[in-house]
Specification:
Two copies of one chain form a homodimer.
Chain A lengths: L10 H16 L9 H8 L3 H7 L3 H19 L8 H18 L1 H9 L6 H21 L9 H23 L5 H17 L5 H4 L1
Helix pairs in contact in A: 1-2, 1-4, 4-7, 5-6, 5-9, 7-8, 8-9
Chain lengths: ~200, ~200
């Protein structure tokens, strides 16, 4: 085990360090195997100090998941200087690359036993809601009214992207570019829905 | 508690009866609260006999979930005598009505703690795979080649339908008809994707 010298840190820095260590460990093993003792050892602090920042092991795990969600949102932040479709493509590409780089974390969180925990699911929901809000704010720029139907389509699209990306990570039978195209084309397709698909539906 | 006379049943009928009682109880409470004792009492059999059919409580719960999945598939069976889009609409309407009628079961299974159990997730996956196979088999009838990209789009569409339907069951801000339209329009939209959405992407 790596021995780390005990250093003085501000509470904010210490908290961030503990979460960072937790998030790094999450890339290697499922959440339920992340031990508070190991993280405390790696940070060179006592188990008691860790529980000063996080009330329980479960709270620590929730905070790691929140940290991972926030990290994903930062990495996929859309660039408002781009044209709408280019902005969407860039954000989707960043998402695909981010989850490819963090596939263990991503797949084990969303499809692992964490998904059976209500508070964990609420964390995932918060991340998805933040993604949905971003997209809904962008709809008027492509001429789509962000009404109740569009909001539901956006929620569905996020589930579409999540599922298709996880399937692709498990068995990539199309290229990264093709996957990005699939996601990008699907958003206007589902939010416009009736009109874009009208030709076929006639 | 209802008293049921012990009757002789064939093993198949008895097994079906136990599953049926389990599925009915699932409409009223989460899976983890389904007690083997209560089911055995309702069926008028001993706990021991129930364990003759299902090796453990967990096995019994898995069998209930499999039974619920099969029941949903039967209720949403497409009618091949219909025109393709009408066939899709009828199947989607049957799905929306089925999950509306069984909303407690459906939402608690897919978004409850059962989703944290690996064998449960495998059951859900089997049901989704059966839905996907049905749809993939139908794609050539609407002129879509069922290649790897289309297969991924179909998996994504199933997640889309599931998520949008669950959101709608929780907070119905559009009508049943509008939800069905959203789902129906989304399938050709995502599987055709690039071409249907081409106009906007240019």
């Amino acid at each position: 085990m790596e021995v780390v010298k005990r250093t003085r840190m501000s509470p904010e820095d210490r908290r961030a360090q503990l979460l960072e260590l937790g998030a790094r460990m999450l890339a290697e093993r499922p959440l339920e195997q992340i031990s508070v003792e190991e993280i405390a050892d790696q940070a060179g602090v006592s188990r008691g100090l860790l529980f000063h920042y996080f009330a329980s092991k479960h709270d620590f795990h929730l905070a790691i998941v929140r940290h991972a969600g926030a990290d994903m949102l930062v990495h996929t932040e859309p660039d408002p200087a781009l044209e709408p479709i280019e902005m969407l493509r860039t954000a989707v590409a960043a998402y695909v690359d981010y989850v490819s780089d963090n596939r263990n974390t991503y797949v084990s969180l969303l499809r692992g036993s964490a998904s059976g925990d209500e508070e964990m699911r609420e964390e995932f929901e918060r991340t998805r809601a933040a993604m949905a809000d971003r997209i809904i704010a962008y709809l008027p720029r492509v001429g789509i009214t962000p009404d109740a139907r569009a909001a539901l389509a956006v929620r569905g699209w996020i589930a579409f992207v999540e599922e298709a990306t996880i399937s692709w990570l498990r068995d990539a039978r199309i290229t990264r570019e093709e996957l990005i195209d699939l996601h990008v084309a699907a958003l206007p397709a589902v939010t416009l829905g009736a009109s874009a698909a009208a030709a076929l539906l006639q």
